[in-house]
Amino acid sequence: MDAHHARYPFFESARQAVGEAGVDLVTLIREGHPAVERGRERVQRALVAGTVEQASDQRVDARTEVLSYPIARVLVSLVDAPGAVEKYAASEATTAHERFVEEFERGRQSTLGGDPLTLDAVLREFDLASVVRSDGTDTDPTEYRVAVGTYLDLAPAGDDWRLVTRELADGWVTVTRRELYDLLERAVERRVADGLPLTVPEEIADPLAAVVSEVESALATATYPRSFDRVDPGSFPPCMQALLDRARSDEESLSAAGRFALVSFLGALGMDGEAATTLVGSADESLAYAADRLDGGLYPPPSCSTMQAYDVCIDPDDRCATIDHPLEYYAEALE
Ligand code: SF4
Questions:
Q1: Cα 325 to chain center, whole Å?
Q2: What is the pLDDT of residue 52?
Q3: Would the CB of 326 count as within 6 Å of ligand 1?
Q4: Got the DSSP string for 233-260?
Q5: N or C: which end of the chain has fewer CB atoms below 10 A?
Q6: Is the CB of 83 under 6 A from ligand 1?
Q7: Cα(68)–Cα(55) distance, rounded to whole angstroms?
Q8: Cα separation of 240 and 117, whole Å?
Q9: Which residues lie across from 169 on neighbouring strands?
């Protein structure tokens, strides 16, 4: 099991490596292998912060990271929370997208070692042989052509992706490199969601009961107002004002946690994907993509303590000392 398997545990080669290593999940769980704790963190961070990145002070080795993925799939199947599977798959895909960009664009190596992944390798992984460089060369193209069937299969919702807005010739749709990454994110999301939720036998579910409760408690601790009669950006808490400004800026990009916090906050205000995308604008493509998939407050927005833990509690003011959740702040500011 190598660094690529650790960063992309949903790759077929990672699944094979786990199979060839003869790993027995029941034994891992019974013995409390570190992959169980990392699997818990994987699911919990996915559901409360929109990322599966490890906490920087708690790095595990490549083997543990790979093994945490099948355990996370079991855990998320056991968690009793609306939209858990969909949110988990979306968060795995968001993190993969960020890693793809790091490796394709910056040639950055994983902290776990190994060569940077190539775009061709990922296209092969998802059987996207129908994606070709539009200029027919191998030299750093900025546009690609995608077979229309593949495009329709993977394109997210949203006006920008509608086929009528696209250049279409001989059954091929032209996309930018950034858009190709969005399509790959979608392919990852599909791969991760495939087969979930699992049917988990008792011999696995029983020893994981306490871990599942821990995840559910982290989701349930957030108490906050749940309905609002209007959207007033002037009443947003300082963190959301700052995240909105960053999302609209061409110069700054949001962390996965910041993107998740802002999108889930807007969803909790009752905004749909179109309204959220209009409010945010399209400077941050990943955020616009996430907002496009917003489903009316499906994902609970993070509490102030979670925002602090993920470094997205920004410029707290006097009112912040009296509340525990950004939505509580908003409800008070609206009065
Ligand atoms: S205390 Fe809460 S509402 Fe205030 S800035 Fe921090 S996260 Fe936002």
A1: 22
A2: 93
A3: yes
A4: GGGS-HHHHHHHHHHH-SS----HHHHH
A5: C
A6: no
A7: 14
A8: 34
A9: 172
Question: What are 186's two structure tokens?
Answer: 């979608």
Asked whether 307 lines ligand 1 (CB < 6 A), one says yes
User: Is there a binding annotation on residue 313?
Assistant: yes
Nearest alpha carbon, ligand 1 atom 2: 304
From 273, 260, 326, select the one nearest 299 (Cα to Cα). 260
Bridge pairing between strands 131-133 and 168-169? unpaired
- The whole-number mean pLDDT for each consecutive block of 10 residues of the chain, a chain of 335 residues, reads 88 90 88 93 89 77 93 96 89 92 72 68 86 65 87 84 87 90 93 96 94 86 72 94 87 80 88 81 65 60 84 93 92 90
Per-residue tokens: 327 = 């939505």
The Cα diameter of the chain in Å comes to: 61
Residue entry with tokens 């570190």: 34
Q: CA–CA distance from 216 to each of 34, 78, 84, 86, 327 (Å)?
A: 20, 10, 10, 16, 20
